[in-house]
Design goal:
Number of helices: 11
Structural class: alpha/beta
Distance between the termini: 18 Å
Number of strands: 9
Length: about 350
């Protein structure tokens, strides 16, 4: 195996996404640069674990695993990291499909030995067939997608976005795994920022590390109908504020909010101005987009304020997991898991 071999980890938790999971795995199988393996990590759902094990029993290169840690996305990813055999570990959301050259663009970024992570561009697939007129592109992170304001091309960044990202295995040797207690836990409050915290921790452990986003590494991410409504927008913005407070408490506000300062002082004011201009020109949704940006900022700020108070009082904590690499499966085990 080469250090450029890529293991793809897809964390799953509900049978409601069955067709999406199959589509995600199929998109990995269709890559122009073949993956070494695809690992489906099931988050404490025995029925889904059994069903996926039957589905992929005779499929080479696909292994189905149970999350070996506490419930949640971070522990699922850590299970995948510990089990993966590739020198590069990529993560794909269970409700997303990757374009054919996704892994090829990831791999090309690692030609530089200092590159420790490469992320990509995530495009929304709206359940209604089109973006809601009021929904600002500056807030596409609310639905797990690349948002307006990120620089184009292949550029160095503070952090990659977890649903479309890859890391060298040695990155986890240096920094540990994803922190538990900070990210997603099934359908509970949509917290996030676990990849931000990891990336900051990584660059502290390895000051020479380079983290990239290559916008040619594209995936398409489903946005369910419930997430097209303002109620979810507000809930997700509030949860982001809570999560950012935890990150800032851990790594310091200077680093924890470094990218957010530019976003709130440059990107968002420009978005409000565009919305108001569209309203003057009688274009649909202009006032709604401007209002949503203002509401999103205020809601996230409220979550950050409350999260900061909780963090200072010790009421909100998370822990970093040291990854212990599992031994490669024996030949008989591989046949049973394939």
């Amino acid at each position: 195996m080469s250090e450029h071999d890529i293991s793809v980890v897809v964390c799953v938790y509900t049978e409601d996404r069955w067709e999406d999971i199959l589509a995600a795995v199929s998109s990995v199988a269709a890559q122009s640069l073949p993956a070494l393996e695809t690992l489906l990590v099931v988050d404490h759902n025995a029925a889904l674990l059994e069903r996926l094990t039957r589905e992929y029993k005779e499929t080479d290169g696909v292994r189905v695993l149970a999350n070996a840690g506490p419930r949640g996305l971070s522990a699922g990813r850590n299970t995948g990291i510990a089990t993966a055999r590739g020198g590069i570990i990529a993560f794909l959301d269970d409700d997303a499909v990757a374009e054919r050259d996704w892994l090829r663009y990831f791999a090309s970024g690692y030609d530089d030995p200092l590159v420790m992570a490469v992320g990509g561009r995530t495009m929304p697939i709206w359940a209604s067939g089109r973006r809601p007129a009021w929904f600002p592109e500056e807030f596409d992170w609310v639905v797990g997608c690349t948002y307006r304001g990120l620089p184009p091309g292949r550029v160095q960044v503070r952090n990659v976005l977890g649903g479309n990202a890859s890391f060298r295995r040695t990155a986890f040797d240096a920094a540990g795994g994803f922190a538990t207690g900070i990210g997603r836990d099934g359908d509970k409050r949509p917290l996030g920022c676990e990849e931000t915290e990891l990336c900051i921790r990584l660059t502290r452990a390895r000051p020479d590390a380079i983290l990239l986003i290559d916008d040619r590494a594209v995936i398409h991410h489903r946005v369910p109908e419930v997430r097209e409504h303002f109620a979810y927008f507000r809930t997700r913005a509030y949860a982001e504020g809570l999560s950012k407070a935890l990150v800032a408490r851990s790594v310091g506000a200077d680093k924890g909010l470094e990218s957010e300062r530019r976003y709130t002082t440059r990107v968002l004011p420009a978005g409000v101005a565009r919305g108001l201009r569209d309203a003057v020109l009688a274009r649909p949704g202009g006032v709604g987009r401007a209002g949503a940006i203002v509401a999103g900022v205020l809601t996230a700020a409220g979550g950050y304020a409350l999260g900061s108070i909780r963090a200072r009082r010790g009421g909100a904590t998370f822990s970093v997991v040291e990854i212990e690499v599992a031994p490669p499966p024996a030949a008989d085990d591989e046949e049973a898991a394939a």
